[in-house]
Request: fold
Amino acid sequence: AQTVTQSQPEMSVQEAETVTLSCTYDTSESDYYLFWYKQPPSRQMILVIRQEAYKQQNATENRFSVNFQKAAKSFSLKISDSQLGDAAMYFCLPTGANNLFFGTGTRLTVIP
Amino acid sequence: DADVTQTPRNRITKTGKRIMLECSQTKGHDRMYWYRQDPGLGLRLIYYSFDVKDINKGEISDGYSVSRQAQAKFSLSLESAIPNQTALYFCATSDHTDTQYFGPGTRLTVL
Reply:
């Protein structure tokens, strides 16, 4: 079974600063996708960013970017210029082989 | 209108009752999923379906069953609900890139 580890249960960041959330995973697949989702208090699951494992270039979406290290099976999320609306639970999700295992999440607090 | 809808949004029931949660989607995706979320445990996969005739167990299928009535509809049943099935349940669809598109969730409480 695939395992996903988010080693930071809670993180905090000052508004306008940068924060990095970590995720490591274990998979035997060579071709797969990786995602970060956020879940604000509304409980809706919202896609933040997607990375294709076969691409060496790290994905970027506005203030969100990833550091994908395929050999190390590491997929971290960097949030730049943090905003109050970024406060949420963040979940890492690697996919592949018909298995979908979410990490246990990191709760991000943004301090005004 | 939302692309993925779930009914009901909230449900309180008693131990032993049969419960059905319904999911509909207008995204035209073949793949649909049911997850449950418990506090501190993230989301765990219950069942998934790649098309109407293809249904597969996920990580935690015991105590649950599903029905894929059409491409757009995927329902989850608890044949005899028990208190430890109290959780937040999400339906999702995906495209060929595995990108998950979630419904708003159903909060189920089993007393």
DSSP finds no helices and eleven strands in chain B. The mean pLDDT of chain B is 94.
